[in-house]
Every structure is written in C-alpha cells, then in structure tokens.
Amino acid sequence: MRKAGRVVAEMHQAIREAVRPGVTTGELDRVARDVLGRRGATSNFLGYHGFPAVICASVNDEVIHGIPGDRELLEGDLVSIDCGAIVDGWHGDAAFTMGVGTTSDEDKRLVHVAEQALMAGMSVMHPGAHVGDIGAAIAAVVTAAGFGSPRDYCGHGIGRAMHEEPDVPNRGRRGKGPKLVAGGVLALEPMLIAGGRDDVTELDDGWTVVTADGSRAAHVEHTVLVTTRGPEILTKL
Ligand code: MG
Ligand code: MG
User: Fold this and answer.
1) Tens of pLDDT along 36-61?
2) Chain segment 73-106, per-residue pLDDT in tens
3) Distance 57 CA to ligand 1 centre (A)
4) How far apart are CA 87 and CA 135, in angstroms?
C-alpha cells in the first residue's frame, strides 16, 4: 500500500505542476494516466461503476466526482483532484484542492481549513480509538470555521479494494463506531462547503456532486495507516 500511495502522490505532484489557466481537466487526466503508465500501476477510478477517467476533477461549486473533459480551468478557479492507484492488488486513494492562478483569500482559507480538518482527523488515529473520534475531530475544525459538509459522502476503509469497511464519516461522536487497529488503513476525506450549509445535489451526468447554494467546495484526502507509533500517511512522497 505504500507503493500504491506513492504512485498517487506522484500523480498529485504532476497534476499540481500542470494546473494553470487554460488547461483542461481532460489534459490533467492524461497527466495522471502518464504517471500510472510509467509506474506500471493501474487505476481504481477508471471503470468504477462506469466512471470514464482516472481522476475526478471538481471545479468551484463541484464538491466531488467531477468528470474530466473539455472544461478549461480559468484564473481564479478552485479545483479539487481525486485519484487513486493499484499496485500489486493494493489500493491508494487521495485528493487535494488548489487554486488556479491567483487565488482569493476566501478560497485560500477554505483549502487551509480543509487541510487542517484532515490533519485533525488523522491526529486521533491510534489503535483503540474509534471511527467516531475521527469524524468528531474533522467536524470540530469545519464547523468552527463556519463551513458546511455534505452528510451523504464519507471516507472509508481501503486495502485490496478501494472502498472497504468501515465508513469514515466527516462527523461523529467520540467513543462511537468501530475501533481502530494497528495495521488498519483508512481513507479520510473531508469535504467542505464555503457557504456553511451541508446540502448538495447531483448533476444529470450521474456523477458530479455540486453545492446546493452554489458556493465553492474543497475536498482533501489521504490514505492513512494506523500504527502503534501514530498515523502514517501512505499517499505522500
Ligand atoms: Mg476515497
Ligand atoms: Mg478519493
């Protein structure tokens, strides 16, 4: 899983370097495909319930599951990229959000709080802790900042499949939910809505989830291993 996570991190790095005004989300998908090919890895996104690409690219009010295509990124857009990789049958899955060109202070704050929420969720990942501890930690950061978070989408266990038990919600109660064990791996993925409400809707394409109020969204994710020495992020270089 470290190998798969590293490939995902390399995909992220290559995409970050390619993001600029004028690039299309389809071109970013090809950047990710190139990394997978170079590393001899395969995609766990392509073909997933029929998904047609190796990345999700969600722009501005799109929260998650945006389909890459001809859309050009514009100066001041906010783009979330989610992607994964399979190496030797083991899965990695991670997401980041970044501004395109010059980024507004509001968008910078949204991305910063999303990353802080992810760090807060990871910080409680010790053997014996509960999944509810993670959700509570994430939600505390998100709500304190005044942002919303969709209720119907969450993180997950990950291993031989991209999505395994348990669900890892972005809200929860401390001491509730399944217990974490050393060697277990979870994908944590806070999703933030700038407008402060939690409501989202799905577009007619059957995939793209957008904020109901039209405000911007951020989505960040890491695949994280539980160890007795603390959490280990697998999807980083
Ligand atoms: Mg995931
Ligand atoms: Mg993901």
Assistant:
1) 999 999 999 999 999 999 999 999 99
2) 999 999 999 999 999 999 999 999 999 999 999 9
3) 14
4) 29
In the chain, how many domains are there? 1
Could you tell me the two tokens for 11? 């995909």
CA of 92 to the centre of ligand 1 (A): 9
pTM of the predicted structure, to 2 decimals = 0.98
Q: What is the CA radius of gyration of the chain?
A: 16
Closest ligand to C-alpha of residue 167 is 1
Looking up residue 95, the CATH number of its domain turns out to be: 3.90.230.10
- Residue 21, CA distances (Å) to 25, 79, 237 in order: 11, 11, 26
By residue range, what is the domain housing residue 170? Answer: 2-233
Cα of 78 from ligand 1 centre, angstroms? 20
User: Cα of 209 to ligand 1 centre, how many Å?
Assistant: 14
Which ligand sits nearest to residue 45's alpha carbon? 2
Helix (H, G, I), strand (E, B) or coil at 180: coil
CB 180 within 8 A of CB 126: yes
Please give the distance of CA 172 from its chain centroid, rounded to a whole number: 19
